Amino acid sequence: MEKENKTPKTNQKPETTFVEKEITYYWLNSDIELTLDEKIKNIQSYMINETGRGKSEEEKDKIYKQAQDLWQDYRKELTNSKYNFYLNRPQYNFLTTLLLTKIEYDVNTVFIGIELSDLLVSMKEKNNYKNDEDLILYQVTPTQLTYIYHLISTYKIKGLTKESYQFSEILRKIGAMSKIISYYDMINKNLSEDIQTWVLTFDENVSFDKLEQMKEEQKEEETKEEPKEE
How far is 78 from 150, CA to CA, in rounded Å? Predict the structure, then answer.
């Protein structure tokens, strides 16, 4: 009997930009986004176009290893990617004061705070605001962003003060970046699982429905990229 493996479609890609005062800002630099997307396509294309059916065990091992190498390359790029944390002066002052002087650290959080020391130093070096409205970009890793949220998420503010709005804006920005990080993390997890299932299709009696889905999506992308006749 033919075995089947059905995998749901990946989540829709979240917005990677936002507009403020008619200026477009990027949560993730477009070159990094393009690189990640291309590496995803390369892995999917490889699984679509390569098969170990009818080949020797040595050949199958080489095909599998190449897929793993492509995935590891994507994973490395994902790990090294940095996100753009835009803050105006009030937001910067609120966040850094919160982390440096207001939060009460305990045995579970003090080392997380220390891990952010280098980031806070680099943020201070870039702190050259000329007014309260302009945004300055601070690059953060997914780990640093997670640490920041973990530390500030339990902080409480009394009343709807200016600090409340600054706090909410910081949380909103962290949320927007976290959606992008989660999107690429989920793809990373899915690709790892897809490769393991794809390898099983080297056996004639095993099928993988998601390969057909990938083929359809690849055709749609190719159709979009084709130049329109004038």
Answer: 21
- The distance in angstroms from the start CA to the end CA of the chain is 51
With 0.90 as the threshold, say if the pTM is over it.
Answer: no
Please calculate the CA angle 196-198-203 and round it to the nearest 5 degrees: 110
Q: In the chain, what are the domain boundaries?
A: 84-179
Which of 47, 64, 70 lies closest to 213, judged by CA? 47
When mean pLDDT is compared across 71-80, 120-129, 172-181, 209-218, the lowest value belongs to: 209-218
Task: Using alpha carbons, select from 71, 68, 70, 51 the residue that is nearest to residue 60.
Answer: 51
Question: What DSSP string runs through 139-162?
Answer: EE-HHHHHHHHHHHTT----SS-H
Q: What is the pLDDT of residues 122-166, one digit of tens each?
A: 999 988 999 999 999 999 999 999 999 999 998 998 888 899 999
